[in-house]
Amino acid sequence: MLDATAIDRIVDELTKARSVTVLTGAGVSAASGVPTFRGAAGLWKSHRAESLATPEAFARNPQLVWEWYQWRRQLIADCEPNPAHRVLASWSRRFEDFTLITQNVDGLHERAGTRNVIRFHESIWEVQCWSGCQRSPDRWLNEVVPLSEIPPRCPHCAGLLRPGVVWLGEGIRPHVLERALASVSCDVFLSVGTSSLVYPAAALSNAAKSSGATTIEINLEATPVSSQLDIALEGAAETILKQIDDRLHNTAAFGKDA
Ligand code: OAD
Q1: 99 C-alpha vs ligand 1 centroid, how far in Å?
Q2: Which residues does a 6 A CB cutoff place in the pocket of ligand 1?
Q3: Are 113 and 131 members of one domain?
Q4: Strands 214-219 and 188-192
Q5: What are the beta bridge partners of residue 22?
Q6: Domain range holding 252?
Q7: In the chain, is it the N or the C terminus that has fewer CB atoms within a 10 Å radius of its CB?
Q8: Which residue has the higher pLDDT, 196 or 40?
Q9: Are 108 and 86 within 8 A, CB to CB?
Q10: φ, ψ of residue 247 in degrees (nearest 5)
Q11: CATH number for the domain including 24?
């Protein structure tokens, strides 16, 4: 049973909003079939993050790390955006000032047609030269599934390529962080489907609150930031976002269809 009063408040806030920023996490892609990291069926239940998603793990065993990324790339390639991605994509066209910051590396927001996406943890569909050779760009697109060679080799120096994602313990690229921080100064900030455990992404909702935004969380369960935000709604992103969107469509002030 969804919390009707909270949904009324969210619809009201969104109707008045000029600028909207949404932070998403793995929960938004769960309904597409992409496994989350934490929780009962999360990837970190059966896999050790330290063995698969850190620079140290790659230095130790690039073969193992690439096997895991190859598996995930194949799995994601077969997934489609779900109603949560689609609603957010339509909002990206409706709001004058809309930013979507995603921790997800799967590319499903982009595939749904979302505008102004900040890929906070970069993309599983990009690769980088592990040794950062002078001749290769910083990172580039590689959507080949499956890769013919594991680990793949840098076409410029024949050294190892690494997945172009941000691993645990690595920093967010400065210009990405800068854009994300600028976008938290908004009218409404939504945190959707993220456990709010991994920093610096987890700090964004409180930064938004400090800057005066109305802050909203949508998650299957409470997170460490729930009690600090203005509205915390428990439920599935794909259901709740759809319900909010249906209500917005019936609100004349929300403007024309995207
Ligand atoms: P997590 O796996 O930590 O959390 C997923 C969140 O989504 C949980 O809080 C779930 O309750 C919630 N959830 C699951 N299904 C949902 C649904 N259908 N609707 C709404 N909520 C749902 O994923 P993230 O918070 O994205 O980083 O994880 C953050 C980072 O930790 C990831 O980007 C990754 C990981 O280690 C790196 O690899 C650097």
Answers
A1: 19
A2: 25-27, 30-31, 36-39, 42, 49, 53, 103, 121, 166-168, 193-195, 197-198, 219-221, 223, 236-238
A3: no
A4: parallel
A5: 100, 190
A6: 1-34+81-121+172-258
A7: N
A8: 196
A9: no
A10: -65, -40
A11: 3.40.50.1220
